[in-house]
Amino acid sequence: MVDEERFVEDITDQDDNFSQWYNQVVRKAELADYAPVRGCMIIRPYGYAIWENIQRLMDARFKETGVLNAYFPLLIPRSFIEKEAEHIEGFAPELAWVTRGGGEELEEPLAIRPTSETIVGHSFSKWIQSYRDLPIVINQWNNVMRWEKRTILFLRTSEFLWQEGHTAHRSIEDAEERTRMMLEVYRAFAEEDAAMPVIWGRKSENEKFAGALRTYAIEALMRDGKALQAGTSHNLGTNFAKSFDIQYLDADGQRKYCATTSWGASTRLIGGIIMVHGDNAGLILPPRLAPYQVVIVPIWRKDAEKAAVIEMVERIEKMLKGKVRLKVDLSENTPGWKFNEWELRGVPVRMEIGPRDVQNNSAMLVRRDNRAKESVTIGALEARLPVLLEEVQQALLQRAKAFQEQNTHYTESYEEFKQIISEKRGFVRVKWAEESVAELAIKEETKATLRVIPFDQPEGGVQGKCFYTGKPATCEAIFARAY
Questions:
Q1: Which of 84, 180, 327, 337 is most buried as measured by Cβ atoms within 10 A of its Cβ?
Q2: pTM tops 0.90, yes or no
Q3: Would you state the pLDDT for residue 435?
Q4: Helix or strand run (H / E) with residue 220
Q5: How many domains, in total, are found in the chain?
Q6: CATH number for the domain harbouring residue 354
Q7: Are residues 177 and 308 in the same domain?
């Protein structure tokens, strides 16, 4: 009986130790586990089901913009990596190399892809001859390897899953249009599907992708006040085209270099969803991404009540099949244990069916986000559940937006900035003069990084002085400590 009273093992409160809370939730909700190789992770079925839903919804958004899926090899020749000097310098510390194969030393070491710009560039140079071959707009869903020193499940692992898009265009202006278009796809996915509000904009020169002309990103705020980069889109200009000789014959008879882009989002989105929505009872999953949107928990005390309850559960299951993602918990655990278990796993709606519900021909619906209850007749379930799930989806977005607004601070004083970063956390919006040396000094002194220069700048430009250098400000920027 002691075990039944405990239900689910206690989880550390977020306020006491957020990182411990996070790791406990990931492990106890059976999302992921540590792998035998340091820095790698095993994604368990429940965690992978979330990733499958992310893939499905994001892939549909990509295809609406004309993206086609392809696949490129895992192994990349060293000579390819070395062709783009700035790129190799940016990735050198994170590269893993294959030097032996078939029991012999390889003539040329092969990098396990940290990203695929180089091998894609090599392919584009063969595929593109004329302006009529452009644009090329492709994406691949794959794994990559970056030899990380400090790792956190989902957020930063040596091997992770992601998608990486690669495109080639006639001009830098066309590439810029695609770069911004894909950033908008990420923003829409984050806010509409993941219920995760983001700030979007341009990365600083220090923070941009190695070899890029410009990098754009969406940044989300976690419940511990740290930022998480949730998706990036890079205008590579002609840098990679020149390194890999990606040229085309234009309509005017001149040979020109293509402009290329790349863009990616990864399994760190799952970590973001956990940290934006979760509470002290565990996960709260947005209905659009939840593996199970509704869990049915049958309840009976006497064997005589069981048959009628099970009959109603089976009738409801048949009625709702294909309408919502449904799980029926017929395990031998107590109802109380099941309630806590499915709260931990973040299922958006729990449906309780007991003898009284059978008599009333109804079911009790309980929301995971606010635990509000409502009794709904069986005949009304088919219409009510999709509406209720959308209400939960929107409530999660609004709650996360309110949190972001409450934890976005404004200051013109560097002293106040340091106090906010150390004591309050969150986003700090400041007037900024775009100086790389100053940016690095701030990072050294406060561990805060420039997350993004937001698109929503003041009308008529920024007035006043940079909060750090005192020089005339050129923009407003968002700083935060980050994952």
A1: 84
A2: yes
A3: 96
A4: strand 214-221
A5: 3
A6: 3.40.50.800
A7: no
215 forms beta bridges with 234
DSSP state of 448: -
Tell me if 396 is assigned to some domain.
no
Same-domain check for residues 32 and 108: yes
Residue 9 token pair: 């093992």
* DSSP code per residue over 32-80: EEE-SSTT-EEEPHHHHHHHHHHHHHHHHHHHHTT-EE----SEEEHHH
Let me know the angle formed at the C-alpha of 53 by 49 and 135, rounded to the nearest 5 degrees: 135
- Choose the final residue of a domain: 338, 354, 388: 388
Structural domain range at position 469: 408-480
Q: Could you tell me if 479 and 448 are in contact, meaning their C-beta atoms sit under 8 angstroms apart?
A: yes
Which residue numbers in the chain have pLDDT < 50? Answer: 1-7
CA dihedral (208, 209, 213, 218) positive or negative: negative
Tell whether 53 and 164 lie within a shared domain.
yes
Omega before 135 within 30 of 0, i.e. cis: yes
Give a yes or no: residue 12 inside a domain: no
Query: What would the pLDDT profile of 73-117 be if each residue is shown by its tens digit?
Result: 999 999 998 887 666 677 788 999 999 999 999 999 999 999 999
**363: phi > 0 → left, psi -120 to 50 → alpha, else beta; which?**
beta
Residues 245 and 323 in one domain: no
Beta strands in 354-474 (DSSP E): 362-367, 373-377, 408-410, 427-432, 449-454
Predicted pLDDT at 5: 41
Distance separating alpha carbons of residues 313 and 452, to the nearest angstrom: 50
How many other C-beta atoms are found inside a 10 Å radius of the C-beta of residue 355? 17
